[in-house]
Specification:
By secondary structure, the protein is mainly beta. It is 9% helix and 44% strand. Strand 3 and strand 4 form a beta hairpin. 9% of the residues are buried.
C-alpha cells in the first residue's frame, strides 16, 4: 500500500558566515551539512549551530534549497 508524502525530508545546511564574508582567502569552500527534518513539526527553515572548518568556529548553518 502506498503512503502519502513522507514527513521526513533531507535538507542541506550551509554556513551563513562563509556566505556573507565571501569565504576566507586561505581556504576555498563553504561548510555544508546534510540532515533530516520533519516537515509537519518544523514547516519553516531550519537553523542549527554547527562547526565550520573554514571559519574555525561554531556558526549558524541555515537550510538552503537543493
Amino acid at each position: 500500500m502506498a503512503k502519502g508524502k513522507d514527513a521526513r525530508i533531507p535538507v542541506l545546511l550551509e554556513c551563513t558566515a562563509c556566505v556573507r564574508n565571501g569565504v576566507n582567502k586561505e581556504s576555498t569552500g563553504i561548510s555544508r551539512y546534510i540532515t533530516q527534518k520533519n516537515r509537519h513539526n518544523t514547516p519553516n527553515r531550519l537553523e542549527l549551530l554547527k562547526f565550520c572548518p573554514y571559519c574555525y568556529k561554531h556558526t549558524i548553518h541555515g537550510e538552503i534549497k537543493k
